[in-house]
Amino acid sequence: MRFIVIGDVSVDLMYFVDSLPVEGSEQPAKRSLIKAGGAAATVAANLASLGHNAKLAARVGNGPFREAALANLSKVGVDLSLLQEDETHPTSSILIFIIAGGERTMISSIGASRYLDATAFKARSLDQADALIISAYAFAGGPSREYALKALAAAKKRQLPVFVDLGTGVIRDVGAELLKDLAGVDYLLMNQHELYTLTGAGSISEGVELLRQAGIERAVIKVGSLGSMVVTPEAEALVEPYPVDDVVDSTGSGDAYTAAFAASVLEGHDLVEAARRGNVAGALVATQVGAQGYLVSADDLRRAAQAK
To answer: Which end of the chain is more exposed for a tag (fewer CB within 10 A), N or C?
Structure first.
């Protein structure tokens, strides 16, 4: 299958700590790493690893982070023909504190990702795609927001399936306007906290109803250790998590989920099976360090299917 993925490429500056530092303090890290990241880049890398054609529309700077940010993409065969170079802004970066159990706290520096040039978008590029995946960070503001909105409108005109993966930061930046942007999107993916923040709901059921009122009929809600919930016009289903022995870092788990879910839908699997495969992908990624430390393969999903 052929995917176009729109969004961010970044470098993750990862610090493993026993607890988060308090204001004004100095705290040693058990270790630190520089890893390739970015939601859209990680989705594209996993799609390519799954054997699909993934074309990434993103923007990077020319500074020292560029090589690290792109390190895995060429290796797995991501098509970078839509990648833009920025002479002014550095490649985006994210500072990540990781505490015991793999939970994360992040500080992001937007960098070049926010400046994805909308004038370079060509609607005809979608004629060579089977689906469009947008990292919601592309909607946050600047030229990238215009790029994402133009791509979304062009995809709807072509009746091309559209998957959008949310992020807490973009909900904060755009607010209620984001729900209007996403009306009619075929598949909206988010975690439980993002659902509450986007809709202002106090429960999953209330949030789901508000999504439906906003014109979003198919959604996936990732609920951590409980797995994920699939919402359709006809039903709601909780899909059990995939068990793994050791969770060391959840960075990139949601992006791997999105890649496996979208690929499974286009391969003809029903949404519950697609969510189950997404659970597998997200869990496996959490067993290694870094958003792209483990890229999911088709064999991973086949083995999990045989074991169910």
So the answer is: C
